[in-house]
Amino acid sequence: MATSAHPRPHGVYAAVLTPFDQNLEPDVKAFVAHSRWLLANGCDGLAPLGTTGEANSLSVDHRLRLIEASAEAGLPGDRTIFGTGSCSLADAVRVSRAAVTAGAAGVLLLPPFYYKNVDEDGLFAFFSEIVQRVADPRLRMYLYHFPQQAVIPITLSLVERLKKAYPGETIAGLKDSSGNWDNTASFIKTFPGFGVFSGSEQFLLANLRAGSVGCISATTNVTGPLAQKVYQAWQGADADQLQAELTETRLTLQGYPPIAGLKSVMRKITGDKGWGNILPPNKPLPAAQEAELFGKLEKQPQFAPILGQRAIAA
């Protein structure tokens, strides 16, 4: 994986979709091609193997193979944050170590979400063990706050404890997918310089104005060009209008099951039927829902050119 001296991750990141073949095995060639396409179409960086990438339905071996494939293909490690979370401490360590060894800019870690009502001491111990067992000064940990899915939250006090225990850049940032801007703002205000990404491009402009770094979003798999316009113009006179257009598209997309909806859009953009492959228990959009989604998107002038794209970089 290509690496270089680079500022900490910032800008528009896509929570990268994982393409699968007919046997529901990760399609490595298509994954690399899609990653390159994202970087060529508005995304500053990649966040593979997260919720949108169906990582919690993948085996550890599958995840390691995709990390390896990213490195072999020369995808920019300094602009890649791999999802490495797991309820298994050993698995989280193994995947995190592989990502660091491959030159990734960071790892994105869900809390261990199976056991509910765990206290802060337990969560601190979990993340602390990962830091100690990976035992690599290159580790940059991004905590993943997604209470709708994980139930277990990442709190201000937990971040404070981790940053105190591991000073410097090891506890590098957070992705806030709560959908609550006030919560995101509290992390930005409490920890100046902390790499806080909003989990939705709906809050991209607010995040930048508050002094933080950008967004890591599922829907930037397809809204990357629109999000990049906001990122480039966030201090300009037209920033609010560009954000309004971006938000309109984001809200349309989030009205549908996210993985199925985004894979439907990718199939339409590329003409590749392989984008219809989804790991159970998730399933493709029914034809009527898909037609409804496309109808809404086609009426949005800002999104029509994206639907018209056909080529994926080889």
UniProtKB/TrEMBL annotation:
The keyword Repeat does not apply. Keywords: Lyase. The active site is at residues 144, 175. Pyruvate binds at residues 52, 216. GO terms for molecular function: 4-hydroxy-tetrahydrodipicolinate synthase activity. InterPro entries: Aldolase_TIM (IPR013785), DapA-like (IPR002220). It comes from the Bacteria. Belongs to the DapA family. This is 4-hydroxy-tetrahydrodipicolinate synthase.
